[in-house]
Amino acid sequence: MIDEGATYMLSPHEERWRNERLARVMKWQAAMPYKSFIDDRQIQALLEDNTQPETKETLAVIEKARANTPKGIMLAPRDVAVLANTKDPELWEALFETADWIKQKVYGNRIVLFAPLYVSSPCVNNCAYCGFRHGNRSIRTRTLSMDEIEQEIKALVDVGHKRLIVVYGEHPSSDYRYMCKSIQKVYATRNGTGEIRRVNINAAPLFTDEYEEVHSVGIGTYQVFQETYHYDTYRRVHPSNTLKGQYLWRLFGLHRALEGGIDDVAIGVLFGLYDWRYELLGLLCHAMSLEKEFGIGPHTISYPRMVSALSTPLTTTSPYLVNNKNFAKIVAIVRLMCPYTGSILTARETPPLRREIIRKGGVSQMDAGTRIAVGGYAEMKREHIPEKEQFQITDTRSLDDFIYDLCENGYLPSFCTAGYREGRTGANFMPLAKHATVKNFCIANGILTFKEYLLDYASPKTREIGTTVIIPTYLRWLNEHVPVLASRVRKHLKDEEENQRDLHF
Ligand code: SAM
Ligand code: SF4
Fold first, then answer.
1. Same domain, yes or no, for 446 and 368?
2. CATH code, domain carrying 246
3. How far apart are the C-alpha atoms of 61 and 74, rounded to whole Å?
4. Which domain holds residue 471?
5. Higher pLDDT, 31 or 425
6. Which of 365, 397, 429 is the last residue before a domain boundary?
7. Whose CA is nearest to atom 5 of ligand 2?
8. Count of domains in the chain?
9. Are 315 and 309 in contact (CB under 8 A)?
10. What is the pLDDT of residues 116-129, one digit of tens each?
């Protein structure tokens, strides 16, 4: 439980802002046009009725996931309950193999790379697991000025980044107007040929008219993690007098985003707050509701695992902390249940585990060269600045070391942002991903963006392996499968050598 008393003292300005907003949120909840898609009793019953699935049942679900892939169909809730309760290690190997197979089928063997950019940490909420919660006096919180954002972007593009997830606390200093200004600043900042080409957002849910404003400055995906779908746990970790304490407001945050014109939305759970099996079913119900209401499933699913945060005891004492074995299962089940959805594995996890889970879980996107302190990229050499961080990450490798590792393991590192800029978003993207034809674009654009990286930013060893092994391997694949596209890529590769940039399909 959280201390809602003396440690949670807002300034009069913060309190006024929070209270006004809370009143509007309550009004929205009272007139909400949706009915909750989380049926607690049904989820618990599904898990209890399938505690000991027979081998043939698990195999049938695995087969179904394979058959679903080219059709872009999700598994049913009962299927997920069966997988989550499967215990036989041999069946788990079959599940991991299938996760990798699905990923190869839909996206190919590429990993899209991005950096999270924390621009603000002040927050009027008091989430029990978060270092930035208002009541935590161990953290020095701050909101970056536009000049400071420019410094961060220069540091990021100087090492080769092209895609960001910009992260905000919920606070008057970082409301939707600040979001719009900061995103415009990101897009406007350049250093030589370095630039950010896609900005995604992770922030508190907004009102529809606010989403419209944020959409107008050209954001990619809007991420809101429900944290936990379990009502009682949600109440326990989010005080009721906070904005975040409003479960239904958050549950339908992405429905409002789609109403407000945002093209792509992304869901997630903070694993470690409640039973991971329950949370997987929650994610699936969320994806199904988005499909039902808007015909568009989530663009990505995230499964951040709760890690330690300064002066935040729940992060080490929660009875639901997830071990590595179960974490691998979570990632693989996500891949099987929503075959067309991007799957994001973050630097919260250690390098060896990330290496293992990319394949076992069919991961498609990862952050790299990550610094999560507010203002942390301007001080890139410092791996941690604990008093400025929301929690502690464990993969602090540089972008180049990360990319070299991917190459050694045969992956194509990609900075592709073409889908969004070529209009392959939302309803236009889904059929391509669902029918597994997006892969041809993924590989072609992956090759072109990786080549840019090799020309402009790579260390000698990364340039060597990239040029002699990775690019030729994926060009061969393209040649065999889509020869017309392969010859256009070869032409663009030459153009890139003559200093043309941002060529894409
Ligand atoms: N303030 C916004 C909100 O709550 O929606 C933005 C989110 S927060 C800055 C980004 C995400 O970090 C949260 O949604 C949560 O899932 C995750 N997070 C918070 N505390 C964490 C911890 N101790 N370990 C791992 N992830 C954590
Ligand atoms: Fe604020 Fe988000 Fe942290 Fe909660 S998780 S305290 S809303 S920054």
1. no
2. 3.20.20.70
3. 11
4. 438-497
5. 31
6. 397
7. 130
8. 2
9. yes
10. 999 999 999 999 99
